[in-house]
Amino acid sequence: MSHRPDGIPGSELSDAALVREVRHLHRTRHATFLEGSEDAFETHTRRMVELEREYLRRFPDAASPDPRRTRAGRRRAAGLA
């Protein structure tokens, strides 16, 4: 078994493992920011960005904003566009 200090590359994770890891990173972000060392925060940030990019590559529609949360969508909903 090879040593992987930064975890399994996102591209090698199953879909379920990728979703689980992204959720875990989001749950631990605030604590890492407030209580972690600078190195821990930088490592967390690198891993989070790597896995979020992989998530968006695999599930592009899952991260599309709700039209009601955009300016154009709110204008349409209000009958202004």
Describe the structure.
With 81 residues, the protein is mostly helical. It has one domain (10-77). It has 3 helices and no strands. It has helices at 15-35, 38-58, 71-77. Helix 1 (15-35) packs antiparallel against helix 2. 5% of the residues are buried. The mean pLDDT is 91.
In brief, what are we looking at here?
The protein is mainly alpha-helical and 81 residues long.
What is the secondary structure topology, with strand pairs?
Layout: H1 15-35, H2 38-58, H3 71-77
- The tally of structural domains comes to 1
Any idea what the radius of gyration is? 17 Å
Sequence stretches where pLDDT stays below 50 over 5 or more residues: none
Helical/strand content category: mainly alpha
Strand content: under 5%
What is the share of helical residues?
Answer: 55-70%
Biggest beta sheet summary: none
Order of helices and strands: HHH
Strands, count:
0
Separation, N- and C-terminal Cα atoms: 58 Å
Instruction: Give the rounded overall mean pLDDT.
Output: 91
Per DSSP, the total helix count is 3
Q: Choose one word for the global shape.
A: elongated
